[in-house]
Structures are given as structure tokens and as C-alpha cells.
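Convert to structure. Protein one:
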Amino acid sequence: MRRPSKLVLQRKKADGFTLIEVMIVVVIVAILMGAVAMSIPRDINDLMKEQANRFQAVVSLSQDEAIMQSRELALGFTESGYTFFEFNDSAWVVKSEGPFKAQKLPQNILSQLYLEGVSVSLDERVEVKPQVFILSSGEMTPFTYEFQLPEQDRRIKVTVNAIGDVEQEILDQ
């Protein structure tokens, strides 16, 4: 009987890649795709819609918070964003935690506040003070807050009525 040669006893080297090598390549490709996706600028209209949706959600949440905690809350607006307040010990105090911390809008989004249909002047240089009140009963100062892109006619209007119903409307002129 013939003995197997040395070559036959040696294991044949397989062609191809190991599972580890394939997984490393997949991870590298995923990281590169994530970096590319982060560097691509998002559509400014999507950014404006996202800001309006966030504002609508946080206003609804603040009404729920006022009712659940039996506390009076308020909103103050500036050119570049909005701030929540809470009434503590006979004074309005800025809320700084969670979803109620002060929000700055992206620089390329303009905003405008309307109280009782009248445009309110929003000034960055003046200390922000409560302008819209959210009572522990769930009632609110009715207002409209508009988001607009500079040099464009597209606006998103968020309207809140006296009982806290929040509606959003996209306006194209």
C-alpha cells in the first residue's frame, strides 16, 4: 500500500476570505458611509419642518407637564429661539432641564410670534421674558409661531388655541 505523499497530508489553503476579514470590511464601509451621510447637507425645508415638529411636540408636552405637576409654565421668545419658564416662589425661573431647556433655532431659519393676531417684536438684545402662559388648568395664551426661510415664501405656522390644541400649517405663497 502506498503512503500518502507529504503534499496530500498538508492542508490545502482555501481561496477566499475569512469571516473576520469580511466583517472588518463591512464595518469600515459602514463607518465611511456614516461619515459621508453626515457631511451631506440636509434639505433646509426638512430642517424647518423638523424644528416646527419639535416645537409643536414640546408645547403639547409643556401643557401636559403643567397639568400633571399643577404648576404654571410660560414661554418666552427671541429672534433665534424660545425659552420655557416655571413659576416658583413668586418669580418666573428659566427651566433648563430635559425637553424644556432653551432652544436656539438654526441661523438660516427665521421665526415670528403673533399674539391675538398681532406680530410681536422679538429682540435678541432684550432679556427674554414670559410672553405665552401655560396654566395648570391646561389653558394657554393663544398664539401663532411661524418658521420661515430667508428669501423664500415657504412658511410653517404653528397655532395654539386657548385650550392648548396645537395645529401646524405649511404655507406656500
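Protein two, convert as well:
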Amino acid sequence: MRMCSDVIGKPIITVDNGTNLGIVTDLYFDQTLESLAGIFLGSQGMLRKKNGFVDARDIVLLGNDAILVCRSDARQGTESNAASRSWVRRKRVLGRPLTTSGGTFIGSVGGIYLDPNCEVRAFALARVQIAGPIATVGFIMRDAVLDAGDDDIPMRINLAKAEQQSSELLLKTADPNPDKIR
């Protein structure tokens, strides 16, 4: 798994002719926070700012030094893609409260982990307010999330499932770093 913050600031290079399309400014996710939807390239223009992005379907590789995309015309404007209006930017997810289904505050989202297929695998925890295996591991796997929430509604998790997964991870390895989980 790879922390999304590691992708920020990387150049986006096309594999067809080596063109640099820009720098990753932020990431977009689908509304359920299950997968990467696109890469935000920032705004351009003096008077009428236009947001640029690359759709996740155009990503070939999230490399260590650069993001490779399939074609030189992969950069788009959000105004040309109706689906992009429903996407959620990473910066809007960071700090989102995490609660149990009963409303007990667990902590907040401190980061997002992606697998090589650009699927969300886990959420790093910040401001953890509980003790136990979840706090020790420091992240919650995506499949323990019941509801992704939004700007006004906290993300809800299945506490029993999250604790079980965390306990299993602690038993498997002395280093519960999600980067080492396959």
C-alpha cells in the first residue's frame, strides 16, 4: 500500500511521448471513498480559473518518482467531465471524524492508503481517542468502514471488524506498517 501524500508533488508524465502534464496537487476519490477517481492538477487561468485533472482510468503507474499516464491528451478540465463534480478531494477527507455506528468518537482521518490498482485500502488515524489494537496499528482497513460520511457527517466504522483486523495484523507482524501489507 502507498500513502496518498507520497503522490502529491510528483510530475505526471505521458508514456506515449514523455510530455509533462503537470504536478499532482491533490487527489480525487469516488463518493464512497473506495477508489481513486482522478488526480487534481490545480487551477489555471487569471480571470476564469479552470481546474485540471487526469482521470484515474488514464493512470498507467503510480511510480516513486512520477505518475505515468497513457496519453498526452489525458489532462482534462472538470467542466468537461460531469462525473468529476461528484468526486471528493483528498483534502476534504483529511480530518474527517471517525465514529462507531453508535456514535463513539474513534479519531479522525489522517491519511489514505492506496493499493497498486488505485483502490483505497486503509485510512490512517489521527487524534486517536481509544486504546487497543486499532490505536496500536494506527489505521483502519477500508472494508471496516460502514459509511464514508461527508463534510458534515462523520465516517462510521464497524468497530468489531476493525479491532479484529487490527488484532490479526498485530499477530502476523511485529511491524504493523500498512506499507508492508499485501
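The chain has three helices and 16 strands. The first strand starts at residue 2 and ends at 3.
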